[in-house]
Every structure is written in structure tokens, then in C-alpha cells.
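Good morning,

Both structures are done.
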Amino acid sequence: MNRESSIKRVGIIGIVGNLFLLIIKFTIGFLCHSQAMIADSANSAGDIFASLMTTIGNKIARVPKDHDHNFGHGKAEYLFSMFISISMMIVSFKLLWDSVSSLIFGSNFTFSFALIIVCIITIIVKFSLFLYTRKIYKLHDSILIASSMQDHKNDCIITLCTLISILFGLYGVYWVDGVVGIGISVWIFYSGSKIFIEAYNVLMDASIDETTKDMILELSHIYDNIKSVENIASAPVGYQYIVFVTICVDGNISTFESHKLADDLENDIKNLDKVYDAIVHVNPI
């Protein structure tokens, strides 16, 4: 299965799994007036939206380059990621308000064993999704799959905290429910802000990582006629980059040789995983 199909499948399975969890979490949380469970259901709603945006963004990003978009549509993934992050932060403020209100004005939380069952089901489903996405991530080094994998892992931890607050309710300690609701809302905001920063950096043309730059330098050392590398610049196009390299060569070699050298280096650089395209400029010395 290719990279695009894998991301699509991860997104669809994420939507189905989280939709199931959203329904049972919100229903039981609403009936039992559990702020922690309602916050957990909102987290699942955010996961559905994130999976949906990932699927749509991935579909647009797959569209090849055309006359109006010379370097493809890869940045669509990060544009949709920014939509996801903003929606998560808005939801977190609403959950924070409701949770603080339940602490100040009192909680109507009613303990039910159904809450415990829902938590156990959630942990099982989320851990299964984590194992699945981890398997796919090992096949395709995708930031979108890595984000889904981490999200499923985090949800297991969040639901475990929800379960702890519910168990406190079994002994009549209801204020923990509001505290856990606050904790989940803060976590959702933190996760949303991380996605926002990552998407912002790509959309603002953040440079390629230092490891890839070092790999490009190593490739240039293969050619004896390349005396030095003057500059390495880059611009992101989705999860990959266009790389601009300026090399210095012996001014006595022919124009044909220098262009052949540049072409060979460009082809070598294009074979790197994070490189979409490479442009090599030659400076004679």
C-alpha cells in the first residue's frame, strides 16, 4: 500500500473509531452529568474533525502540480492542520469554562458503572488504534500518521484519568471530576497549539532540518569537481521541501561539464525522502 492510501485508511479508521466513542461517551457523560466524560467526548469529537481534515487535506495534497501550482498542493495538509488546531483551542476554552463552573457552583455528577464500562471500552479501542497506526508508521514515515499515532496514545492516558475521577465518585468525592475536566481541556489546548505551531512553520517556509542538510553536504563530497557548497536554502511544499544549493566548481571546466555535475547532484538530492525537488546553481572559481 502506498503512502497516500495508508494515510487515507488511517484517517477513515480514525473517524469510524472516534465516532463510536463519541456517541457512547457523550450519551453516558450527559446522563451522569460527568464533566470529565463530557470533556473526553469533546476530545473524541476533535479527533473526528482532525481525521476528517486529514483525509480531505491529504486528498488535496495528492493533486499533482499544474500551471497555477508549479510545486503541487502539498501545503494543503498544513492548511487543514491549522483549521484543526484552531477548532481544538476553541473547544478547550468551552470545556475549561464548564469544568471551572462545576467546581465553583457544585457538580451534579452521578456515579454509574456505565461510566467505568465506557472508559474501559475507550482504552481498548484507542490502544488498538495506536498499535495499528504504529504499524503503518513503520512503513511510511509520515507526520500525519505519526500525529494520529501519538493522539491515540494520548487518548488512552486521558481516558485513564477520566476513569480515576469516576472511581473517586464511587466514594462520594465528586470534585475530582471537575479537576480532571480542567486537565483534559488544558491538554486539548496544548495539543492544538503544537499543531498550530507546526503548521505555521511550514506555511511560513521554515527551513529543512539540519540532518537533511548534512546529508546533502555528504552527497556533494562525492564529486571531486565540487570545491565547496556555498549555500543550502529550502522551501516546504507539504511534508517535503524544494532545495536550492549553490556549489563552487573549478572555473576551467567546460559549461557542459558543470551543468552535468549540477544535474547529477540534483538527481542525488531528489532521492532523499524529504526532498520534493532540487535546484543546483553553479559558481565557477
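Second structure follows.
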Amino acid sequence: MSREKYFKIEKEGHIAWLTFNRPEARNTMDFTFFESLPGIFAEFDRDPDVRVVVIKAEGKSFTAGLDLVAAQSLMGDGSALWRENLRRRIVEFQEGMNCIEKCSKPVIAAIHGHCIGGGTNLTCACDIRYASKDAVFSVRETRIGIVADIGALQRLPYIVGHGWTRELCLTGRDFTAEEALKMGYITKLFDDRESLIAGAKALAEELAALPPMTVQGVKDVINYSRDNGVYPGLLYVAQKNSALVPSDDMIEAVMAFLEKRKPVFKGR
């Protein structure tokens, strides 16, 4: 099945909208879903007109997580060869999440309805998460006998801390949008899906209006500093700014301030 059966991709100015578009299956994630994401985000990365990506979904759920029917094909004979092939498959699924975090453009998740299992793993890899009040989250893998293996255990502690991570991932319980806001998993809560999408669009427009190389540099430095520590991160940002400053966009920002007008940034 082609990726067009799973995703709808639209561009609006400098914003790319990635919509999960299999509502009849509650946007569950099967092999094609995971395999398609790296190519999609590589396209976003290469496109200089794309400055921000927003992920949203059609139907009643953002995603109900892993397609358990498709996952049955992962069952095998228990041989060493089968286990090695399973390991490789898991790594491929991980890359379907990693590509979101690795994308140089900021990624906003606009979450409504159920965001279960793989959905929470996926949104952990996004930069900013907004949700509507009907959103329900879960790192549910312990309830189906699996150790969550596509990013939640690695990323969630940096978002909500170890206390919340251990409770949520060990129990596999559902948590509400209100809880998600309280713990800092999401940063804004909306009454319904319509206002959620409008809020995500407003944020995306705000980010898209900023100097794109600077915004991308901030994302890069945050991720590098998280993975390497404070002092390596400081050295890294010193190198980053020595490569970026001055830029045409920086000069435009100064001139716009002096001329009392809105700056127009071109990513140069």
C-alpha cells in the first residue's frame, strides 16, 4: 500500500501539513506507515520553502497506535535468524520516529482523540505538542507484553521528568489532556479539534515568520546539548553562531527595527 493511503501532505506558505489519513482504521501504524515517514521528512528537510511542519489527523483519533493485526506477521519460529530480522525491523520502526526529531525544521503535533502507544512515541519526537481536551495518551506497551522500543523511554524523561515517565511507562495507563498539560507533555490545551488546528496554525505561522536558519539552529543546539551535555553544548553553539553570524536575515532584523517595519526573512 502506498503512502498516499496513509498520509495527506499539503503546503500552505512556509508550512507543511502532514495529516494522518486512515480514519477508518483510527490511523493505526503498520509497516507502510513507519517505512514512509523517513522519506516524507527527508523531503521536508530538503525543501527550502518548508520552515515548519504540523502533524495532525483525520477522524476520531490522532492514532490508536500499532496495528496489532499487521504486527502478527512479526511472530516467527524463535530462531536466531528470525530474532536478528526482528531486531532489524525494530530499528527500521525507530527510524520512522527518529526522522521527526532529526528533521531540521521544527515539528508541531496537533493531537486530538486517542494518541496511544506508538502515537505517544511519535509525538515525543516532535518539538511542540498541542492537544484538544478530548485527547487521551498512553505508553501502553506494558499492557500488551512489549517494552516500548521506538522512543518514548528515551525521550519522555527529558520532556516530563523521570517520575512521570516511570509511572506512565510502567503502568501503561491512560492519561488525559489535562494531565498532559500539568506534567508539561503538551504546552497548550484547546476546547476542540477545530480550535486546536487553528492554534497549531497560528504557532506555525509565528515560527515561519522568524529567520529559518536561526530557528533550525536552535532546534539543532537543543538536541545536541541534550545528548552531549552542557559544556559540549556551549562549545557547539559557539561554533554554530560563528558560522551563522552575520547573516542577511540578521541584517534584515536590525534594519526592520530601525525602520519600524515588520522584517521579511529569506533564509539567507
